[in-house]
Amino acid sequence: MEENTGLNKKEFIEQVIADNVSSNGHLNEKNILDEDITDIEYTTSDEDITDVEYRPSDEQVITDEDNKDMVEKSDVFDEKKQMTDVIKSLKDLFRFVSALKDLRADKIDSLERLEKLIKAVPSSNNLAIDMDREVSKAKEFIELAKTVRAQSFKRHEAEYIKSLQAENRPVREYSNGWRTGRLMIKVRPGLSKIKILYNEQTLINWTSVKSKEDFVDLENRANLMLDSHLIPEEDMIEVFFDAFKEAKNHLSGKGNSSLVPVIDFYREVRIALIRSLLANKGLTARIDKYHKFPLWAFLYNLDIYRSLGSKVPDNKRLGLQTGSMQEASQNKGLVVNGLNPCDEYKVMCYVIPVKRGSGK
Question: How many Cβ atoms from other residues are within 10 Å of residue 237's Cβ?
């Protein structure tokens, strides 16, 4: 049985390098049976991580003096191999637990198998010591892997942003990512993942990136999603006005009926799109195009509508109005202003009719 090495983080990193690089600079190989290893990618659920900028701990902060050393270490660090070793050690430690899955009372040899399994269970003291050791090793590996990933990710991220700036494309930095054109790109450097949104609504969920080209591909995919859900200009004007009238009818007699909650307006827009399609194409027309009309698609079209300006007839022009702080905190509003990264996001709660010269 291995003894607890008690290495600190710096000593652990140096040990990782020493264990995996021979004197001639090549990675050492270990004979590990395929059936003993599950080849998986380390992932973390959204519930485990908040959308904040990656900030390494004091012990992880890399100065200019340490940067070269870190690059050298990242070049020799084999994440997949190290993860394989960690997983194998944990599986070996809990092998008796896995055996319980195949143990059934209706089998003729169940008693013998149960006896054999119980004999294989380590003593509570030994199990606790081994568990602490393996869990500690796993945590050290995760921290090192995330640090190395973050360094690689930031290089690719910098290349991507530099390429956008070289093309004179609008880019705006945020604490947890970037606004590039119509898109918000949130980043998790420690996991080498990005998430792409429009007006705070997810277009592409957390996805691994391993190069600048991955950034570009995901950006193109997200932009294609927006473009494919764009309502033709003339249809948009009619659909929005139709939706507003229907929403007002539902609110008739319920306070100020000229204020239509933006959530209600979204629902009516979805209905109006299908109604318009059936009116133009006939009752037998397929409604696949608008069967699914995500919130991000609605918000994109809403921003486009607001950019039309005088193209919208005066008698059909609609505007947006903010709500109270309480209404905004109760998620009764939606984020707008996503077309240009220079514009600040705003939360709007109501759709209203706009009179000539009102400027809304």
Answer: 19
Q: Which residues have CB under 8 Å from 78's CB, separation 6+?
A: 20, 27
User: Which H helix or E strand runs over 270?
Assistant: helix 262-281
User: Closest by alpha carbon to 143, among 206, 65, 56?
Assistant: 56
Q: Is the dihedral of CA 159, 161, 165, 169 positive or negative?
A: positive
Q: What is the mean pLDDT of residues 160-175?
A: 93
Q: Report the C-alpha gap between 220 and 181 in whole angstroms.
A: 11
According to the model, what pLDDT value does residue 319 have? 95
Residue 257's pLDDT band, with cuts at 50, 70 and 90, is low
CA separation for the pair 101, 95 (Å, rounded): 11
pLDDT of residue 56 exceeding 50 = no
Per the CB < 8 A criterion, the answer to whether 319 and 351 are in contact is yes
Which run of H or of E encompasses 134?
helix 124-166
pLDDT at 70 over 70: no
Q: At what angle do helices 124-166 and 212-228 cross, to 10 degrees?
A: 70
The model carries a pTM of 0.68
Report how far residue 230's alpha carbon sits from residue 224's, in angstroms, rounded to the nearest whole number: 10
- DSSP letters for 274-287: HHHHHHHH-TT---
Q: Which residues, including other chains, have CB under 8 Å from residue 311's CB and lie 6 or more apart?
A: 233, 237
What distance in Å separates the CA atoms of residue 296 and residue 322, rounded to the nearest whole number? 19
Which DSSP string corresponds to 22-44?
-TTSPBP-----GGG--------
244: exposed, middle or buried (Cβ count in 10 Å: 0-12, 13-18, 19+): buried
| Cβ within 8 Å of residue 124, ≥6 positions away | none
Residue pair 338/303 in contact (Cβ under 8 Å)? The answer is: yes
Q: For the chain, what's the residue count?
A: 360
Q: Which run of H or E residues covers position 174? A: strand 171-174
Which residue's structure tokens are 């494919």? 228
Q: How many CB atoms lie within 10 A of CB 162?
A: 12
